[in-house]
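Recap from last week: sequence in, structure out.
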Amino acid sequence: MAAQLIPASTTIKILGVPGCSLDYKLRDFLHRSDVPFEWIQITSDEQARMLAGAANARESLPICVFPDGTRLERPTIRQITEKLGWFHSPSLEEYDLAIYGAGPAGLSAAVYGSSEGLKTVLIERSAIGGQAGSSSKIENYLGFPDGISGAEMANRAKRQASRFGTEILLAREGVKGEFPAGKGVGYLADGTKIIARSTICATGIDYARLSLPNEDRFLGIGLYYGAGSSEALFCKDEHVFVVGGGNSAGQAAMHFAPVASQVSIVIRGDCLKTTLSQYLVDRIQATPNIEVLRQTEVTGLDGGRCLEEITLTNRETGESRPVKTRFLFVCIGGAPHTTWAGDLGIVRDDSGYLVTGPDLIKRGKKPASWPLDRDPYYLETSMPGLFAAGDVRHGSVKRCASAVGEGAMAVSLVHRYLANG
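Predicted structure tokens:
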């Protein structure tokens, strides 16, 4: 049988073809979920038949082969989570606390909420860890002097939250909310309804896009949003480009440097010192195969089946030049996922971030929609009982430790809200 063509293994095997965006999605999800896997490249239909029992490589692959011999052809992330035993339905009709987003802020809130006796559910649309989960190494987080990968940190937190009783719903995305008196009702994309007495929004931000022609065409096959740490093995002896001047971009550059022939960091500004932690600036300057292209932006993408070339434009001179590359990683900040809040009239700033606590008070007055006599609590939005933590919040510090702190603080305010309204 086809399942016997690949020998038994303790890790998941992904049989895929070069230039397939679904391959990348699967690798990225498993890597960020800290699940060991092996990627086996299939280059012909004959090889596909021999190794995978697939008649046609392009139509059947990728195929995931699990340790028990189960084969899934072109699986979705939901199918992967189901096979791993991670896909669950809510067990309760109502919770004390619903948390949306399983990045550092959401995971922290889950640990503190469930450990303090709140019936807690954590909803995540993708992989545990958020953007931090894609980081190859976090070195400035308290208690980890040698650093820790974002995936490992996130999955430690996941185990911790689960041990305290948090229910975790993966591959679920909240699409709409309602807030009848004293309740929060979240509607997920698959129709599931979550009812809770309090809610924490910790959905973070989505990476900003380059807004260039061919962007969707090359997504996952040469163009990647985020640090893309799962792709380092494929970058051996390649010229890799990283766009962005923040810590995630700096860590990505350091992650690729040992395997790539050259890493070019593309920034619109004059230097990294204004946007990057000093320890990363020092390491980048000391790494001979990393260069910083200042006052530069990517203005074109080109290639055949995969990305083969980008166009770089100098912002000072206007001069453009084509550069050959098969790997472009974009880490340029982003925008919060808060359209649902705008639909409910919840106060956001001009960029879409949720406004909370003292920032809601203007000239000594609370928002016109605020229904209570008291002022909003520090991390509370303009909707009583709805709190925001981490990157999605207006004025937040975009650091992992700050997000963890806000998640813990939000839970203490949830207790106050549940006790006093």
